Amino acid sequence: MLRFVVRRLLWLPIMLFGVITLVFLLTNITPSKAIYIRLGESGTAADVQNLIERYNLDKPILQRYFAYMAALFKGDLGESMAEGRPVARDLAEFLPASIELVLSSLVLIAILGVLLGIASAVYKNRWPDTLARGIAVTGLAMPQFWLAIMLYLLFFYQLNLLPGGGRISPMIGPPRHATGLYILDSVLAGDWDALVSSIRHLILPVITLSLTRLSTMTRMTRTAFLDVLSKDFMLTHQSHGYSRFRNVFRYGLKNALSPILSVLGLLIGGLFAGTFLVETVFSFPGVGYYAITAITHSDFQPAIASAIFFSLLYGIVNVLVDVGYAALDPRVRY
Amino acid sequence: MRSERSENEGRQRRSRGWRYAVYALLRSPTALIGATLVLVIIVMAAFAPLIAPYDPNRLNMASRLNGPSAEHIFGTDNVGRDLFSRVVYGSRTALVITFVVVTVAGVIGTCLGAVAGYFGGAPDVFLMRLVDIFLSVPPLLFALVAVAALGPSLYNMMLGLSIGWWTWHARIVRGEVLRLKETRFILAARALGASPLRIILRHLIPNVAGPIIVQTTEQSGLVVLTAASLSFLGLGPRPPTPDWGYMVAVGRTYLPTYWWMSTFPGLMVVILVLGFLLLGDYLRDYLAREIK
Amino acid sequence: MVDPVRLSSPEQSRHSDHHGVSTMFPETSFVAVEGLSKSFPMRKGFFGKPIGEVQAVRNVSFGIGRGETLALMGESGCGKTTCGLVILRLLSADAGHVRVGTYDVFGLSRREGLAFRQDAQIIFQDPQEALNPRMSVRSLILEPMAIHGRLEEGKQRLEELVSRVMFPLKYLDSYPDELSGGLQQRVCLCRALILQPSFLILDEPTSALDVSVQASVLDLLLELRRELGLTYLFVSHDAAVVRYISDWVGVMYLGEIVEHGRAEHVFDDCQHPYTRALYSAVLSPESRVAEKKILLHGCPPSPTSIPEGCAFRTRCWLATDVCERCSPRLRQAGPDHYVACHHFEAARSTGEV
Predict the structure, then answer these.
(1) C147 to chain B: which residues are within 8 Å by CB?
(2) Residues B235-260 pLDDT 10s
(3) ipTM given for this complex
(4) Beta-carbon contacts of residue C27 (< 8 Å; ≥ 6 apart)
């Protein structure tokens, strides 16, 4: 067992290396627009030359590769060419926003998905089932960016209920910095306004992210519950007089828990991937937004750093899920 | 002989074949809706010149940014092109992308998966490592980086997506092949002297066809989604090729007043993807019943 | 019929003195198996470190005369099926020689191996599993001919062959899962016979069939053997079936042959304690063995840890020290009758636990 885990973990650096090299090559093939973005219209030729030298853009690609890798080993993630700020610091700033987004979505998916799944299972093939599955599959079919826009149009433009972007109202400002998670920080600081504002800003992005992933959770819960509901011990309970409701929740949930957890694990990776689009549309300052900007500007340092982050995340989550499966089912190990 | 015959009659199961499949399909609301949606888009693509009232690339600055009206069902875009016509032609782009990506990824994935599964040993391990690498990157990121590097275009996007998707097929096919490898009829084929190539082509793949078809249909939906996302980010086909994702992106800068430019193309994406997903769902259920 | 490749002269197939049984199968035997062994390693851990092995077949030797049927009989897991698979080269063997006709089975080149496949075939236990569900009966039966480039010939002979096994022609274009078990097995038979082999291994061909159909299939097998001059290796756990169809019997226990001889001797006058226990469980009015049921104590040992000496000693009521020290070899107990037991003479009189 230990060998299995170690082996899976050992794979990560190799994979990481592959990803880094790949992203580096890809972002450095085409000349970068990043420095021009930085300088805007006011840059002189001398400024351009300065930056070129600073970032080694005139050197051959192989040399730049080694230079970058050398710096990477020392833990230096480099600077964003477009902004001029160190990547590490930027990442640290943007990360909490994404974490907050993903966690909230995870919670929403868990709750909503499980509820819908249970409804589906209990009322199998009747209207709640069809409705739940309909919602789930329609959510899945919607492109996140489009859903985001639609929600924006509806709630912001038409109804003016929720803010259209950003993370917190600029007039209120972020709460005192502790974890970087605004909700948590607001609670800790007792800053009521910030709390409300953060939540309001989170609603639309979270809904967008969640709705599209609901399907997996609903389906999984439904299957797990159907399986459990048909088991004999449930019938025994019913014959003993337990109410059906209690049955479903207490015993059904306990048994369905493990597949639900594994789905959640799998979802994390997908949710982070979803941050790319959702953050972009809502101008939500998270890692996804950071990554997209970097990639479209061929700004390779932030791009690679983001790629590292996502790959690492994906990789670790996959390992954890695999380890979880292997722990439960010894046949899986190979 | 008489007893044989009556025993045989009793065992007669429902006949296989296309007719039954279509019959079952027509009886399932899920399948019907799904199939209809997809068919609508296909018809739209096939008969685009007949359906679209205007030339999708015809600029008309005079009537730009008009809302939905009698002349322009979906309104016009920022350079006066009829949105409905563009949407109709956009279906061609979407379907071409889907078809190419799914076919390429499917063929590559199936071949590699079948070979790895059947032969096992070194090629199998190597392939699985390869699949792990590819899978450890979210497909969107993959295609994104690929396209960002090679330059946005239709072909590059299809290339990027194919690279991202073959791994799913490979994994599933390999799993199925591993399962089938131990069945008796494969052993019987070996006993008859069949070569590995024949076994893979004639025995394994037809029996894996079911899951492959289900996978393909479901993935078509995801491919459309991802392609739309990529185009939205500007990494897809360049104008003037009509592409739904890109249209939504363009429309975004004109929000919220000129809402139709983003709404309708996105709606088409939903329709197509929903169609594929429903069909895929139905096929998966059908397959599960067939096995029983 | 394809010209068998002459690879080894009859003299070369004279085996060494395993179990002292050179008398058991003279060179005239059509099929000669000698010293066959096969084990499956059990692996654990990522690097596939072997932690033990399942010894499926241990030093098995027997011969089958042309046109005769030898049955390998025993409980599930005694190695009889593995034996059959190894003989046909569907599994690799760890040790031993097999000669079928003039084929030196383990020494065949690829091309010769293909020829061998036309000459030796196998019928499996579960006919439904052995047939590709996506192929019609017609394609299934013709497939072997297609593989060996004799398709035209196959098409011509198809109907005649199919009628001979009493398979209704109207089902030729049906699919396996539309047929009953008996019909499916007939399809397997056709598929095996269309190549006109001379040797057929039958691995529990009737076990998966309804009892009412079993008899008809067995009769068909007997008839075909007679008509086509086939040689059978019949594998089964069912003593009644074995008795019905075989000329010779080899009783297997944990990978070894413990009793071997002509069917009438082994059935009516069984000597090995295991065989006697086996038969006491079968209701057989013809048997002369004591009607009292013999109950073996203990569980069958796991094939991964086979007891030293005589493998049966842990459950045998005749076991003594010598059984633990020394593995018994097959000794003659009568004409065409061999037993591997130290005490079988003593067992002649008793039949109790």
Answers:
(1) 192-195, 198
(2) 778 777 888 888 888 888 887 778 88
(3) 0.76
(4) C10, C11, C13, C14
